[in-house]
Amino acid sequence: MATTLDGSSRQINLGQGIAVRAPGLRGRAEVHDVGPGADTRAPEVDGSSAALDSALTQEGFLRLRVITLDVAPVPNAPIGDVRSPVTDEAG
Questions:
Q1: Is 70 within 8 Å of 27 (Cβ atoms)?
Q2: Sequence-separated contacts (24+) of 15-18 with Cβ below 8 Å
Q3: What does the pLDDT average to over 58-86?
Q4: pLDDT at 43 over 90
């Protein structure tokens, strides 16, 4: 089931323990199960390619979920804080 993104910087719960922040983007986000035995294995949903699947397998990764986004930028959205790949938040 798709969840609405409102363009704010608040955390949006997508279910299954997954949450996103999408400041400046408005639209819909949806979590799809794509792991072994899942009903959703269509390439247009899980982003599969033979090369990607091979690389993930080689590195010991197993793709379980994919998040699809159908979004558009919010016109004249305020510029947010500088983002960093490092955080002191758990998770």
A1: yes
A2: 16/65, 18/65, 18/67
A3: 79
A4: no
